[in-house]
Amino acid sequence: MQVLRIDDAHTWDQALLALPNAHVLQSWDWGAFKARHGWSATRLLFQEQGQVIAAASVLRRRLPLLPASVLYVPKGPLVDWADRERARFVIAELEGLARDWRAISIKVDPDIYYPGRAPAFSTRPTCAHDTAGMLADRGWRFSPEQIQFRNTVLLDLAPNEDELLAGMKQKTRYNVRLAMRRGVQVRSGTEADLKLFYDLYAETAQRDGFPIRPAEYYYDAWGTFLQAEKACLLLAEVEGDAVAGLILFTFGPMAWYMYGASSDRHRNLMPNNLLQWEAIRCARSAGCKRYDLWGAPDELDESHPMWGVVRFKLGLGGQIAEGLGAWDFPVSTPGYWLYTEMIPRYLAWLRGRAMSLT
Predict the structure, then answer these.
(1) CB-side exposure of 338: number of CA atoms within 13 Å?
(2) Is pLDDT at 223 greater than 80 in this prediction?
(3) pLDDT of 275-306, one tens digit each?
(4) pLDDT tens across 195-205, in order?
(5) Phi-psi region for residue 50, left (φ > 0), alpha (ψ -120 to 50) or beta?
(6) Omega of the bond prior to 305 within 30 degrees of 0, cis?
(7) Of 87, 152, 155, 298, which sits most exposed with the smallest number of CB within 10 A?
(8) Sign of CA dihedral 148, 313, 124, 24
(9) Which residues contact 138 (CB under 8 A, 6 or more apart)?
(10) CA angle, 115 then 255 then 198, to 5°
């Protein structure tokens, strides 16, 4: 096998799209975006007899508190995980890269699921159990820092619109039609609407208690993919007042619901239900075959704080898929322990001390 470093956006994306199950977080644009926010991106293609058989966009970030770096392959590497020889070769190359760069660790979180715990329509590999065993045998460990969701909810977009509506839970289907009757309108947004969407996103974060980054970070992320025509912004409005919105990412045959926001205004009109229905229609018109509704809790329990969100996604006709999650390869055991254990504890102590003094 050969390993090639790619420095051309078109060559990279075309190679990804020729592989099964390409992911938007492995795309050129995602690496370029992250490179403007503290990371650098190295893109590797793996060839066998002149044919591309795997790919890995490797992000590298230098640590401010330590003279070292960490590596991350978001939703990758892309390889046929059922082919143990190829998978081991790619993993060994990534381990070697981490050693050569003297990184503390490298993280991977390929989009693969456990047998019997994914929808039948999903094309993602279902060899997570075997892959976890292979990684553990090589010294990898399940990561304490799961950057992306390990589990998700998937929706098959192959049926026609009538069949998709019929596949929804009765209450969800009723709410979609209720929003239509009550005058909720969904429109496509442009870059000029990003501030409006961010304001909704910030309101959502404050209400639901999750942290967000500065606005410029999101303007860059959202704007990059809107310009590349790999995303669409949808806004739900009531009499011209934007009350909910989402950003749908698309890459090849997949669509991802990665960012959503809503106001408390007019929630009784069910704007989010109609918004998701229009997102489904948008994904289908873009040629997507499957819709990743992006996120389900690790513990699939109705007592989990996220269960209401999961119930909403299941109401759309989605099905839960349980994934492998992120795994780390510690190059430096002391450095990895310091980075994953001691520094987070120290920062938590500082935050607690600051709060006690206010």
Answers:
(1) 13
(2) yes
(3) 999 999 999 999 999 999 998 988 878 888 88
(4) 999 999 999 99
(5) left
(6) no
(7) 298
(8) negative
(9) 88, 91, 92, 95, 329
(10) 125
